[in-house]
Amino acid sequence: MTTLSLTKVNKTFGATHALRDVSFDVAPGERVALLGHNGAGKSTLMKIILGLFDADADTGGVQVVGAAPGSAQARRQVAYLPENVAFHPALTAREQIRYYLRLRGEPVAQADELLERVGLGHAARRRIGTYSKGMRQRVGLAQALIGKPRLLVLDEPTSGLDPVSRREFYAMLDGLAADGASVLLSSHALTEVEARTDRIVILSGGTLVANDSLANLRRSAALPIAIQVTAHRDSIDAVAAELGGTRHNGKMVSLSCSHDDKLARLGQVAALGEVIEDVEVLPPSLEDLYSHFSQRSPS
Ligand SMILES: Nc1ncnc2c1ncn2[C@@H]1O[C@H](COP(=O)(O)OP(=O)(O)OP(=O)(O)O)[C@@H](O)[C@H]1O
Asked: Where, if anywhere, are coiled coils annotated (predicted)?
């Protein structure tokens, strides 16, 4: 069974068509990045999944762990982490998580294990008012993990975190996904989701314009691949004459080719033998793909 199933979801606010016929599924254990420019419809879609907004009547369907969004069954299985979490500054993380456990009818003894799991075991008895933003975000994740949710909906979960905290945050998500939880996260930080998610969904002006793995998006976009060839210094003229391309800094030649021509182009480079010092193949980045697909959006 899919964890999340969206079929032709529509949402209008007066004259604003925030979502138009958006359809995609999320499977158990899948990590899906939801991308889109400001106002693309990401938060609206998340709020529909959480049952905070109703989709329009002409929507095909929304199933959250097999139930209607916002129903008691769906709410038990879905966790939400907003971009900016707010907790009582005078409480310790342990007190705060125990409080939420009590509200959810779960044993309060789980608090220590949850905080340990998000890397806050050492600070569990410190007041949240003394925490950094990254630590507060971890308290939010510990709260989201109460009741072992099957779907985690995370709105810009790493915004404002430093690079190390971001990496640690994604490592925690990897562990949760490996245990079978599905993750749907929105982000504007393209480079970090590039490596840490299984599938990319791009919304543009409320319309879904891409929904696939990075590898498949690269194939379907067919954007040029860059090859950077570094020659030994006294050989650069010969290398440039043989390969063409653009010369840089007296040592390097940049080539651009299609996916289908890549191996033939690399063969030409390899045939030059010892005059080549190094070769780097740079596939289109998620940023390139994002611009490509976002611009293709129907108006
Ligand atoms: N409660 C609301 N009332 C009226 N219009 C709304 C409401 N919520 C969202 N919208 C509009 O719907 C569109 C989609 O907004 P949404 O907040 O979903 O975008 P987003 O992709 O989350 O943007 P951001 O990256 O800036 O958070 C926007 O045009 C927004 O102005």
From this structure: none
Protein residue closest via CA to atom 17 of ligand 1: 43
Pick the CATH number of 224-283 from 1.10.1740, 3.30.70, 3.80.10, 3.40.50: 3.30.70
Residues with CB under 6 A from ligand 1: 13, 16, 18, 36, 38-44
Q: What's the gap in Å between 60 CA and the centre of ligand 1?
A: 21
**How would DSSP label each residue in 152-187?**
EEEESTTTT--HHHHHHHHHHHHHHHHTT-EEEEE-
In the three-class reduction of DSSP (H, G, I as helix; E, B as strand; rest coil), residue 84 is classed as coil
Q: Give the separation between CA 198 and CA 13, rounded to whole angstroms.
A: 32
| 128 close to 96: Cβ distance less than 8 angstroms | yes
Indicate where the chain has its CATH 3.40.50.300 domain(s).
4-219
What are the residue ranges of CATH 3.30.70 in the chain? Answer: 224-283
SS3 state of residue 50 = helix
Mean confidence (pLDDT) of the chain: 91
Question: For residue 79, how far is its CA from the centre of ligand 1 (angstroms)?
Answer: 21
ipTM of the complex model? 0.96
4-219: what fold?
Rossmann fold (3.40.50)
Task: Report the nearest atom of ligand 1 relative to the CA of 46.
Answer: 18
pLDDT over 70 (residue 226): yes
How confident is the model at residue 299, as a pLDDT?
Answer: 39
Return the best residue to mutate from 44, 46, 186 for the ligand 1 pocket (most ligand atoms within 8 A of CB).
44
The structure's pTM equals 0.85
